[in-house]
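Build the 3D complex.
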Amino acid sequence: MMIKKNIENTTGPFVHSVYFWLKNPDNLENTNAFEKAIRKLIRTNPQATSNHFGKAAEVEERAVVDNSFTYFYMMIFSDLKTQNTYQTDPTHELFIKEAAHLWERVIVYDSISETT
Amino acid sequence: MMIKKNIENTTGPFVHSVYFWLKNPDNLENTNAFEKAIRKLIRTNPQATSNHFGKAAEVEERAVVDNSFTYFYMMIFSDLKTQNTYQTDPTHELFIKEAAHLWERVIVYDSISETT
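Done.
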């Protein structure tokens, strides 16, 4: 949480961002099941060097803001190769098995850091 | 870049993620102008505790992956209030003035960390 304000010390070279829209975002059984599955992934996954798991923030409505997602999960990997390894890692496959039936839509964005 | 793998030490409580699609992503003059403007923002902005600036990564094509954006810029703020301050900060307003004519589409996602 206390990350130095330092351009050299960005949050990582490979950022894997996943936005989830649950089928039933107001169903407590569904949200509990999703959160349990993703917390297991966070605890057990060996590839990520850092994680962020959150919900949509209650920000002011602006035309460019998409506030409709249920959950956001971001993982930092050291490089593209490690992200590729993650795709078939057992912890990732278990998460998909446990949680995929709960969401109706997922968007993934993958980004490599530029030198700043 | 070397962030501890520690669930307590996530990448921050408020994650502001912005995806940019430039009008002319292959025009070097345009990309240089965008990068110059965003680097100025990164160097001068007082609100963000951490940043990631990158391009779309060359990952394997999957149905859920949106690889079409030109740039991704993520800022970590300590809380929602600081993000609100950022919206009208002079460094943010200058960035919009210098770069907004270069993009055709922007999506912003804002997320607050959940306790993991």
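Strands of chain A lie at 14-22, 50-56, 71-77, 103-113.
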